[in-house]
């Protein structure tokens, strides 16, 4: 082999070495840890090596950077020192090019080396690593493990220096959480866009994520809308309520919610009427279960799961007053949306009109309104919890009149239906596309 061919082969080998390090770095970083864990549990030594490398990112990345830097510097230096003089000698024999022989030869060597380094040493290996991260990570792991041991002193020094610089910048070298809730939401949205996750699946998973932060005061049915039985009423009125309601359990009160006697099952009352010939609600009333309105959705789910026989609970505020009723069906509806037969509202909580505006039940949680408006995250604090009615009252500072409106976050909110002093429905008009582009 001629000296020029050997030198070309050496430069190409250094470029490919650069590509290997770039591929190894990207493949390991892009690999799914769950997949590597499964392979390691199945006995794969290479997968275990990958996990060991990922467990010490500073040392691993330092080793990769040492390899990339050495390969790049040596490739350019070797090419410039060996190939350039040979090319310069050939150009010197050309009278017109002789004055520029050294400059031209250096450019003719460095530019192709830089181009090949970008293509074969960076872009192609990284694209391959992103396309098949786990298989390529398994290939690279043994080599990188050996190099990590070989370069440990240098890698340790680089890691120490890096941490020192980070401390000077006030970062302290502390890494944030590897996966955040927003990362999960982003993956779900990406999966829906590519057809991997169906719209209904995406909606349910989004609702589950919101449930964790949603207070019980938003999930419950407010006492003004709740079905309940008053023992002071006559049997005929109580029977009509039992037969007209889709619910199977009812709070039992005397006069109003300030005097709660307990909870009763409709089938027990009706069975007693068939057996005894009279409707005796008080005789079948069981003690009520009370929950604070500040309880979060996941804690509520755990309460229904862990408390035997609990299907309906009364919600109390900080003063101990009953403010609403919550059932297991309410939690289920909060996770999957209102379903017929669960006592949900007959009308959709959010109805999109032809002009793009939304007609929204005022009891709808604000996070659902924000999702329907497709507001970019992170949402404003007032959109994170509470209901639309609460948001309207907070913005206006008084009980609104029918037709009263205001603007917030470039969106118009108009009260279109009132039930006495209670806000019933609100028209939400998002900014038009023309306004957004202005």
TrEMBL record:
Membrane-spanning residues: 6-28, 74-92, 104-124, 136-158
InterPro entries to which the protein is assigned, alphabetical: CBS_dom (IPR000644), CBS_dom_sf (IPR046342), CNNM (IPR002550), FAD-bd_PCMH-like_sf (IPR036318), FAD-bd_PCMH_sub2 (IPR016169), Ion_transp-like_CBS (IPR044751), Transptr-assoc_dom (IPR005170), UPF0053_domain (IPR051676)
Main location: membrane
Cellular compartment(s): Cell membrane
Positions of the CNNM transmembrane domain: 1-201
Keyword Transmembrane helix: yes
Its membrane topology: Multi-pass membrane protein
Keyword set includes Membrane: yes
Keywords from the named record: CBS domain, Cell membrane, Membrane, Repeat, Transmembrane, Transmembrane helix
Source domain of life: Bacteria
GO cellular component, one term: plasma membrane
Gene3D superfamilies for this protein: 3.30.465.10, CBS-domain
Molecular-function GO terms, alphabetical: flavin adenine dinucleotide binding
Pfam families, A to Z: CBS, CNNM, CorC_HlyC
Entry protein name: CBS domain-containing protein
């Amino acid at each position: 082999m001629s000296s020029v061919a050997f030198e070309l082969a050496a430069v190409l080998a250094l470029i490919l070495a650069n590509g290997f390090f770039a591929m190894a770095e990207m493949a390991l970083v892009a690999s799914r840890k769950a997949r590597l864990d499964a392979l390691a549990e199945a006995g794969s030594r290479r997968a275990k090596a990958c996990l060991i490398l990922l467990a010490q990112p500073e040392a691993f990345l330092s080793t990769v950077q040492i390899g990339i830097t050495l390969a790049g510097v040596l490739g350019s230096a070797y090419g410039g020192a060996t190939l350039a003089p040979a090319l310069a000698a050939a150009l010197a024999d050309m009278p017109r090019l002789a004055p520029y022989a050294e400059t031209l030869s250096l450019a003719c060597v460095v530019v192709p080396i830089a181009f090949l380094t970008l293509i074969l040493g960076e872009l192609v290996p990284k694209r391959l690593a992103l396309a098949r991260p786990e298989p390529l990570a398994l290939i690279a792991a043994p080599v990188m493990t050996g190099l990590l041991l070989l370069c440990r002193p240098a890698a340790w020094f680089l890691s120490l220096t890096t941490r020192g610089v980070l401390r000077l910048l006030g970062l302290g070298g502390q890494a944030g959480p590897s996966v955040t809730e927003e990362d999960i939401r982003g993956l779900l949205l990406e999966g829906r866009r590519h057809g991997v996750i169906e719209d209904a699946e995406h909606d349910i998973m989004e609702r589950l994520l919101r449930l964790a932060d949603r207070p019980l005061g938003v999930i419950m049915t407010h006492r003004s809308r709740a079905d309940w039985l008053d023992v002071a009423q006559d049997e005929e009125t109580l029977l009509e309520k039992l037969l007209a309601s889709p619910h199977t359990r009812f709070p039992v009160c005397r006069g109003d919610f300030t005097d709660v006697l307990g909870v009763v099952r409709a089938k027990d009352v009706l069975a007693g009427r068939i057996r005894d010939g009279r409707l005796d609600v008080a005789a079948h009333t069981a003690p009520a279960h009370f929950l604070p309105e500040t309880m979060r959705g996941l804690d509520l789910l755990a309460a229904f799961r862990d408390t035997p026989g609990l299907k309906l609970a009364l919600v109390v505020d900080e003063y101990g007053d009953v403010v609403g009723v919550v059932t297991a069906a309410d939690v289920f509806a909060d996770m999957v949306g209102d379903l017929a037969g669960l006592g949900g509202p007959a009308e959709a909580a959010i109805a999109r009109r032809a002009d793009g505006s939304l007609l929204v039940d005022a009891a709808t949680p604000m996070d659902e309104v924000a999702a329907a408006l497709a507001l970019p995250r992170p949402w404003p604090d007032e959109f994170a919890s509470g209901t639309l009615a609460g948001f309207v009252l907070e913005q206006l500072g008084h009980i609104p009149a029918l037709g009263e409106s205001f603007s917030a976050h470039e969106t118009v909110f108009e009260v279109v239906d009132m039930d006495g002093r209670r806000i019933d429905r609100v028209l939400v008009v998002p900014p038009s596309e023309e306004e957004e582009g202005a």
